[in-house]
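Notebook entry, structure prediction.
Reason for the run: the old model in the group folder had no record of what sequence produced it. Starting over properly, with the input documented here first.
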Amino acid sequence: MTRFEVVRDPLWHNIRLDPEALAVVDSAAVQRLRYVRQLGHAFLVYPGATHTRFEHALGAYHLARRVLAQLEEAGDVRLAPAERLRLKLAALLHDVGHYPFSHALEEAGLPHHEALAARRLEPGGELAARLGSLGVPSDALLPLIRGTGAGPLAGLVSGSLDVDKLDYLCRDAWMCGVPYGVIDVDRLLASLTAVPGPAGAPALALHEKGLAALESLLFAKYQMYRTVYWHHAVRSATAMFKRLVRRAIAGGGLEPDAVATATDDGLIHDLLQRDTTGLARALRERRLAKRVLDVPATALPAETAAWPAADPDLLERVEDRLARELRLAPGSVFLDFPAKPDMLALDLPLVKRDGTLARLAGAAAAAHLGLPGVADALYRSARRLRVFALGPARVPERQIVELVTLPREEVERRLDGERALVG
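New structure, fully documented this time:
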């Protein structure tokens, strides 16, 4: 008999791990994910949000197994065993390079976690050796993890409708105890099919009967960003944590490579030992910076600058200047305007009931779904421009709003010329 293990999971109940998955799961790189929480500091708001990247990895693997079995049973696709194994293991390992504390450190300017996955999969390492023993070259998984793969069903691992999203949206909502990540997963999976893709390889597609379930996924994503991921206290803790780690790295007390391989508790322990800002202790005791400004993006001009979310170096300079102008201590003011412009984006083949193909992408998606027609409005309603401070402050709303509409070059000129940002 083939050896396998069944893992009990609160979301999917029973997850079967085949021998190949067991060989990979028992590696140090994957076991580390047991100690990396999925949602960073969200547990400071939602006490149940202590689930880990490890649980999520098992869930993504489970869903990949389920989709592949369904597609093959329906006769939609026939994959070589090696290709099937590659897809399942890529789903299992898609977060193997992830930092501690969710995406905060990517926002702080460190390399994206998909780039770090390459280090974990380098030839000569334990994980690469285990994959090699299974006949899976480690570099064959990277394009799937990075979303650049062009092989069969590559969109299963990273795409508009991938197993990563399906698991994390359902799992995050379940563990946070909120009813906003409700997705008709069974209907959605039953509606997946395959069509000829680039170079004739089968590509993941959706049958028209699954459109309502797809819309439930998109709306769940919007609700989770608005309610959980961008909750004001979560964003306050994230802003403090980003500043804490950036100061530790700049002061030489922390190496970026060490951060990339740390666990949540290990990193916090190191920061507590070396912290000169007081932020590590404040986070540990949940003494968070308070909102002194909170403006919905719907009240802002339609066009705002990208630098508050995309340029952490400039953002830190702006925050330090704001602290000085507000007569607060350096490092005690945080400007937060998170962005995810592709939040509700789609690019997926659609198989219509008469067998013809359409494309769910861009404005054309609105012909088949209601939500893409209002995607821009929903995205703006999920975003908030906030200023947090560790002391009492009065922040002029009009001037902060003007600030985030200025291009990067103009902000730099004001900083370099000692021109006041808020007066």
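Summary: The chain has a mean pLDDT of 94.
The old model has been moved to the deprecated folder.
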